[in-house]
């Protein structure tokens, strides 16, 4: 009996192990910098006021996105 091996398996497990870590690291990086930059978008909304429903919804959407970015990015560059 001959055994057929997949050429992707011959490359080694290093690529397979680093890929999830790289993905998580990228998500943390994006989350961190999004959490830093999103508050700058609040300024024009707050200066002009939140008079209309659309402005209020935009503000709360930005606030929600900022919270999500904080959750995903809070461990960026954290030492284990």
Structure description:
The protein is built from four helices and no strands. By secondary structure, it is mainly α.
- Classification by helices and strands: mainly alpha
Detail the poorly predicted runs: 9-17
Sheet with the most strands, sense and barrel status:
none
Tell how many strands the DSSP assignment holds. Answer: 0
Ends distance:
47 Å
Shape: elongated
Strand content bin:
under 5%
Query: What's the order of the H and E elements?
Result: HHHH
Q: Gyration radius, to the nearest Å?
A: 21 Å
Number of contiguous helices: 4
Helix content: over 70%
Transmembrane segments: 29-47, 53-73
Keywords: Membrane, Transmembrane, Transmembrane helix
Region (Disordered): 1-20
List keywords for this structure.
80 residues, transmembrane, mainly alpha, DUF8028, transmembrane helix
Write the layout of secondary structure elements.
Elements: H1 7-10, H2 14-37, H3 39-48, H4 53-73
Helix pairs in contact: 2-4, 3-4
Keywords: Membrane, Transmembrane, Transmembrane helix
Region (Disordered): 1-20
InterPro entries: DUF8028
């Amino acid at each position: 009996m001959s055994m057929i091996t997949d050429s992707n398996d011959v490359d080694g497990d290093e690529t397979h192990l680093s890929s999830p870590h790289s993905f998580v690291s990228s998500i943390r990086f994006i989350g961190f910098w999004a959490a830093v930059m999103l508050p700058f978008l609040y300024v024009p909304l707050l200066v002009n006021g939140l008079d209309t429903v659309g402005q209020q919804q935009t503000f709360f959407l930005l606030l929600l996105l900022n919270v999500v970015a904080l959750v995903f990015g809070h461990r960026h560059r954290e030492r284990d």
